[in-house]
Structure formats: structure tokens, C-alpha cells
Amino acid sequence: MYWLFNSSIGRKLIMSISGIFLILFLLFHATMNLVLVFSAEAYDMICEALGANWYAIAGTLVLAGGFVIHIAYATWLTLQNRQARGADNYASSNKTQTEWAAKNMYVLGLIIVLGLAIHLWNFWYNMQFKELLHLEGAVSGGSGLVIGLFSDCPVYTLIYLAWLFAIWFHLTHGVWSAMQTIGFNNKTWFPRLKVIGNIVATIIMIVFAVVPVYFGIIGLFK
Amino acid sequence: MEKVINITVKVWRQKGPKAKGGFETYPLNNISGDTSFLEMLDILNEQLINEGKEPIAFDNDCREGICGMCSLYVNGHPHGPDNLITTCQLHMRHFKDGETITVEPWRSAAFPVIRDLMVDRQAFDKIMQAGGYVSVNTGGVPDANSIPISKLDADEAMDAASCIGCGACVAACKNGSAMLFVSAKVSQLALLPQGKIEAKARAKAMIAKMDELGFGNCTNTRACELECPKGVSISNIARLNREFLKAKLSD
After folding, report:
1. Is B136 helix (H, G, I), strand (E, B) or coil?
2. Which chain B residues are within 8 Å of A95, Cβ to Cβ?
3. Which of A9, A88, A177, B219 qualifies as a FRET site for B180, CA 20 to 30 Å off?
4. Which residue on chain A is closest to B72 by alpha carbon?
């Protein structure tokens, strides 16, 4: 098992698998959000189910583990790659026509982590965390919290949209790159994987955008 | 009409591996468009020798794009701005009159500069020595068609085998990764029956050597395949990942 941590491909496999896990989580999370547009009651039921229950806490821990592994390995790999690249830069710069996202995955990742921090502060802290530590003001049904945030302060809608855009860029490279690392790619599948990646990234972005945009607009006409 | 240009060449000069290097600029006049890039450097070197200066050291050998000896990072591209050619096949007609051409050595921690534009690419030889060969007895020359190989595999193996080991992939990669080179060498053997026998050991040994020599981790930016003078595809990298993971999982 040591090869997972000792070899470059092993470390990349960890990035790939944790990345796919996070994509699956995003799809689940986005679907859950969509419920709020149709029924606040149904949404609150989901929120309560995912409160301070043992299975929700176990799920949160696994999820946090996925994030930590993905971010820690991204940092480790990036540092190794900078070292492998060497201290000397090209004076004539690098003019190879690579995709922007492909070369800036770590930067995009940092933006996503920043957005994640805001997001956890907005919601998770007030919902599961407060309930867990029996702090005051714990919210069990989150519909009011979500609707309040976006309709009271439409600036949050813009912040969340910028965040989603960064995630979109990250995923347009991430999806096919993860499959390439696993070894599931060849000349036939490469264009297909790129299309699949773009579709997955776009679906995730649009479904997530529905809630902030919908309640942001409602807030503007309140 | 023949194109004749006057150019300024901005070249990396470095006396030795430990010496501090820097750029020098040299004006060069009346260069024909039909001159190859290395011939242009020959002309420049002759001019330098006549002026009593040290000529520029650069790697070259066959000058017909087969040997993989020439390198040079020209105007932001390994092997220059033209596609699917090595530096020796690059011609001066691709440059404008009055242009300043920047010529640098490959930049990667695993390819240290020896002098001026020459870099030490022995790391590639060490990776090859780790397993880039067939050491089992494959018998005498087989009769034609006695070992059936699909057209698809034969073509893929040939495409992978077109790698000349010049190191442009490493030079182009922001991570200093040698994955395109290693994947081409693993693929050309793993696709054919003679090479399949040792495929697992080969993938493991070559990757272990690659990591040991300080090459970076591939992040699939595709810079390597876009700059490869032989157009080696990153589908080989997927195959290398597959071969390596299969080998490790079957341990």
C-alpha cells in the first residue's frame, strides 16, 4: 500500500479518487438545494435529518476527510512540482496554448476554499455546529436562514455566483483529468470525457445557482 | 523572392554547471529564410569566433529530426514556434525582420545546465536503464503474421515509438514532469507481445526511477503533447497510469 503515498501516480490517484468523491457530493448537495425552491417544508425536513444525528455527523466527518485529503495532497503535489520545475524561469515565458484552468487548478482551489469558508460560516456553523455544541441560536430547519441570507443581502448572491464560477472552471479540467489519472482514457474517449466533464460542471453550476439567484431576485423586489 | 532578415539573438550564456548565467544579445545580419535555426547559430558562432569571443555551446547531432539531441527553448516554445518539428528542422523564415529571438536551455530541476544552451539529459537514460527494454528471450525472427497483432495496437505502438527522447515534454511542463516520455517508452513495449511479459515490472521500475530523479507529478495540462516534436499523445499517459495501477494492484 505504500506505493499510494510513495509514487507520483499513487499520489495522483488519491487526488483523483478524492476529487470524484467531492464531485458526487456536489451533485447530492445541489439536488438537495433545489428542493427549497419547491417546498420550504420539505427542505427543512432534509435539514433536520442532516442535523446533529450520528449518521449525519459520520457523513460530515467522511466529507471533511475528503476535502482535507484533496487539499492537503494538492498542496503537497504543487510544492513538489514547483521544486521539480526548478528555480529558473523562462525569460520568453511559456507560450504553449494550454487551457487556462488546467494550469491554475491550485489557484482555483484556493478561491474555492475561500468560498467554502464563507459558506460554512453562513450555514454549517449556524446549523449543525451550534446544535452539536448546544450553542444558542442553533437552526434546525435551514430554509429561513438560506432565504434570509440571499433575499436580505443580494451581494451574497454575487459572491456565491463567483464561487460557483471558480468551481465550474475547476471541474472542466478536474473531471477528465481524474479519469485520465485512473487510466480510463484513450484517443476515442478523450473528447467524450471532456464533453462529459463540461456537462457535469455546468449542471452542478446551474443547479447550485438556482437558489441564490431565485431568492436574490425575490429580495430585490421585496 | 528569397527572404533575408536581420535579427537580434538573445542567448543564455553560462560558463559551467555551477556558474551564474545570464542573457547576452548579439545582432546578426543577412540571414536567409532558408537557413535552419542551428545553421543560424553556426553563423553566429563563426561571427563570435572572428570577434575573439567564446562560441555558444548547444547540443545537436543528426540535424534531420531523428536523433533527439537538439533542444533549445525558442521564443516561449521548446523547439521553437513551429509545430511537430525539432529545433534543427526549424527555419529562419518563421521569424520576422528585426525580431529579437530569445534562445534558452531546457529549464527543469532534473535537467541541469552544463554550459550555455546544453543541458544534462542523462536522467532519461537512467529511466530507460531502469526497464525500458525487453530482456526475456523472444526467440528468433518469427515468420510473418505468426504472431497476430491488431492494426490498432501496432499503430499505437509505432506512434509511441516515435518519441526521440529530446525532453521537450519536460521543458514545456510547468511541473517538470517526464510522464509523456516515460509513457511513450512504456507504451511502445506494453502494446506488443514481446514487451507484455515484463510490462508490470517495467512500469513500476521506470516510474520509481522517474520519481527518484526528481521529475514532477503530471497534472494533465497537455503542454507536453502540444510541444512534442513527434506529436506523442497523452493517451499514452493514461495507458502508463493504467499499467502502473494494474501492476501495483496485482502485487
Report:
1. coil
2. 75-77, 81
3. A88
4. A90
Summary count for chain A: helices (H), strands (E): 10, 0
Q: Which residue of B has its CA nearest to A179?
A: B238
Burial of B237 (0-12, 13-18, 19+ CB in 10 A): buried
Work out the average pLDDT over A183-191.
96
Contact B87, B79 (CB under 8 A): yes
Predicted local distance difference test score (pLDDT) of residue A138: 87
Question: Count of CB atoms within 10 A of residue A25's CB?
Answer: 15
Cβ proximity of B117 and B12 under 8 Å: yes
CB-CB under 8 Å, A180 with B238: yes
Instruction: Give the model confidence (pLDDT) of B61-108 as tens digits.
Output: 999 999 999 999 999 999 999 999 999 999 999 999 999 999 999 999
Q: Are A92 and B73 in contact (CB under 8 A)?
A: yes
A159: left (phi over 0), alpha (psi -120 to 50) or beta: alpha
Q: How many CB atoms lie within 10 A of CB B22?
A: 9
Distance CA B169, CA B177 (A): 8
Residues of chain B in contact with residue A180, where contact means CB-CB under 8 angstroms, are 220, 234, 237-238, 241
Strand partners, B78: B73
In this prediction the ipTM stands at: 0.94
Give the rounded distance of the alpha carbon of B7 from its chain centre.
26
Inter-chain residue contact B176 with A85, CB threshold 8 Å: yes
Q: Which residue of B has its CA nearest to A180?
A: B238
Residue type, A200: V
Question: Residue A181 and residue B210: Cβ atoms within 8 Å?
Answer: no
Measured CA to CA, the distance from residue A31 to residue B107 in angstroms comes to: 47
CA distance B162 to B85: 12
Cell numbers of B251, please? 502485487
pLDDT digits (tens, 9 = 90+) for A117-132: 999 999 999 988 998 8
Q: Do A91 and B220 touch (CB under 8 A)?
A: no
